[in-house]
Design brief:
The structure is a homodimer. By secondary structure, chain A is α/β, with parallel strands linked by helices. Chain A contains ten helices and 15 strands. Chain A has two domains: about 140 residues, Quinone Oxidoreductase, Chain A, domain 1 (Alpha-Beta Complex), CATH 3.90.180; about 150 residues, NAD(P)-binding Rossmann-like Domain (Rossmann fold).
Chain lengths: ~325, ~325
């Protein structure tokens, strides 16, 4: 007897937000397990902006998702059947599960990690997953945060951005300024997450506000958005300032937008640097970071919020939230 | 009795190329020397693109030249009078002489260095001056050249670019590709300067040519121009490729041009970095670099060309040459 497996597959390549035209709900069958494999009943999907980039037929750090293939995605679930010594039925695991009800965990490629015990899976997928790891390594390794640094982060109310700001404070940054959209998000940054100040980019001149809030310039700018806000940060870079390019969400959906920063000469005048990174490069070092982040969680020093969308069929809407700014906190889809 | 001192001063701030409207020839008097000063009869001016940036009323790495002030410029000359133990009459010195016939050398601020003996002053101002030092430290320190690297340099037939390519070959780069304007300059790069290949940007698709010539991608791109060529290089960056931002000459004269690179996401996908620098930061280390460069000169391993414009009054035209590409080699003005 076979088990049906509902999946969301890439039907057509999107040019803007995803919809029923580009992401189709289909029902496949759960395949027979081979030796060394385990069957995972997916519980939650981690919805990350990078998923949108995998849908484009463009060179990236991973091959594009093929037409008809399940949308690639992180997530977690529980082992319901196993032909591997590595996975016991009942284990909660995380990894690249894809937008589907059942995923296969393998021992080699497609291996999944056991989720830490005592931390809810959604929190784990947020703070100890791609999101938290991106904040941690981007800020500390790529950005080389130094004590006393003036740190600015865009997309600050988002899952990555809010962790960046909090980790910066924990690690001894001087002022931490968040850039976000709307007064509610800005208030939350300062009142709940311990940011020193927030800039509402919808209010207008970000560059002028940065100049007021960071009179000595920005030592470290963690960029989640690209476009005009990156330009404003470049204009306010301190001597030897560092820009960490995490993602340029401004350009993911609208290829015609965001011509790139006009203020690149700031990098010359201020001897600045700009560096991109992909969090998968740090996979081998996730455990050390996860241990430190779990410690901060336990001590209550790391606030976090999960925005959970119910139902696999709403995964495309959940992805769109990241681009419309409709979420508060880490977007996850509850599958089962 | 006073000595007249012809000078070129900034009369009005230019918006494009400089002309008689923006750079005025005036005659001042040579001031009395104070204790610790020496009088330099200027022999040659070093004409560098950065002079154009100093003419703008915009924040830079040095204050803008004031209206009515002598145009700031490197150069060299001979000591004709001295009230300092540091300078002997007859010494040939180099430093910031300005666009004028006579300059004051001081012991503190405004100090000048003795030019190396046995090397013509124009060659010295080229290979051992701002130009050669920019090539040396930009490539080796900022760019961290590694053996076997595929190196691309724009403005390759210019004074800095031609040194960059040659130093890269001497230091063990794999392929060295130069980008320049016109078939004559491109032929010179390959036939006389030892570049492995050249791209004529006037011929069209620089990105496609880079893809053909650098199939494994560009490990180190030394950018002298900014704009569309920087974008093409970013599109062809190798994994962990480095971009050295030396100057963005494309934008110096035309502020409306060059919106900045659209391909910045390459830095994320390829884990690349981009860094700017100012050669004055390396002043303390010039002697070690000058010694090494002088050695290569003596061994005949470093070809160089000087484009000498005769007469102080033609200094503005000499500066414009850098932007029209009308020069071959390092532009200098012979003053006396």
């Amino acid at each position: 007897m076979t088990t049906p497996n509902r999946q969301v597959v890439l039907a057509n390549r999107p040019t803007a937000n995803v919809d029923a035209e580009t992401c189709a709900l289909v029902t496949a069958e759960v395949p027979e397990l081979a030796e060394g494999q385990a069957l995972i009943k997916v519980s939650h999907l981690s919805i990350d902006p990078t998923i949108r980039t995998w849908m484009d037929d463009a060179p990236g750090y991973l091959p594009p998702i093929g037409i008809g293939e399940v949308i690639r995605s992180g997530g977690g679930g529980v082992v319901v059947e196993s032909r591997s010594d590595r996975y016991q039925v009942g284990d909660v695991v995380t990894g690249m599960v894809g937008w589907q009800e059942y995923a296969i965990a393998d021992e080699g490629m497609g291996a999944m990690a056991k989720a830490p015990v005592g931390i809810d899976l959604p929190v784990s997928l947020n703070v100890l997953g791609i999101t938290g790891m991106t904040a941690y390594f981007g800020l500390l390794e790529v950005g080389r945060l130094k004590e006393g640094d003036t740190v600015v982060v865009s997309g600050a109310a988002g899952a990555t951005g809010s962790s960046v700001g909090q980790i910066a404070k924990i690690k001894g940054a001087g002022a931490v300024v968040g850039i976000a959209g709307g007064p509610a998000k800005c208030a939350q940054l300062v009142e709940e997450l311990g940011f020193d100040a927030a800039i509402d980019y919808r209010e207008g001149n970000v560059s002028r506000r940065l100049r007021e809030l960071c009179p000595k310039g920005v030592d470290l700018y963690f960029d989640n958005v690209g476009g005009a806000i990156l330009d404003a940060a470049l204009a306010n870079l301190a001597m030897r300032g560092r820009v960490v390019l995490c993602g340029a969400i401004a350009g993911y959906n609208d290829k015609s937008a965001a011509p790139g920063p006009a203020n690149l000469t700031s990098l010359i005048i201020r001897r600045g640097s700009m560096e991109g990174f992909i969090i998968l490069d740090y996979l081998g070092r996730w455990p050390e970071a996860q241990a430190e982040m779990a410690g901060w969680l336990a001590e209550g020093r790391l606030a976090h919020a999960e925005h959970i969308v119910d139902g696999l069929e709403h995964a495309p809407d959940a992805l769109n939230l990241l681009f419309t700014g409709g979420n508060t906190g880490k977007v996850l889809v509850k599958v089962s």
